[in-house]
Design goal:
5% strand, globular
């Protein structure tokens, strides 16, 4: 039950992001945002092993920057995924890399807030 709810929340976050960020617009009807949210989720899932490998390879740099490099690396991969899905034409269009950067940040924040509000990020703890 959590997976469909997460997908709907990601779709809602994407809808709000499209309205808030200039340079991001609907390519088709707003119903296509569901497909775009699904594509974003799947590509982020596929990018996770790449991000993990890059974090391991750049561990000394991450230690020198007190973990800031790992955050920047993850953000950059999210921006690339957002820009790529925007170029597919599935629900929304991204006009520039800057719009993709701002859109990825806004969507991440909104998705985190919505997931926290609906308590989907917490794991059930049984004592």
């Amino acid at each position: 039950m959590k997976l469909p709810m997460r997908w709907l929340l990601a779709s809602a976050a994407l809808l709000v992001t499209v309205h808030l960020v200039p340079g991001i617009s609907f390519a088709r009807s707003p119903a296509w945002v569901l497909a775009a949210a699904l594509a974003l989720g799947l590509l982020n899932l596929l990018a996770r092993p790449l991000v993990l490998l890059l974090r391991v390879l750049t561990l000394p740099l991450s230690c020198l920057t007190f973990g800031l490099w790992a955050l920047i690396l993850s953000l950059f991969v999210n921006i690339l995924v957002f820009y790529f899905v925007g170029s597919l034409g599935w629900g929304f269009r991204v006009e520039s890399f800057g719009a993709a950067a701002l859109g990825a940040i806004v969507m991440s924040v909104l998705n985190t807030v919505l997931t926290g509000l609906f308590e989907l990020g917490r794991r059930d703890r049984r004592d």
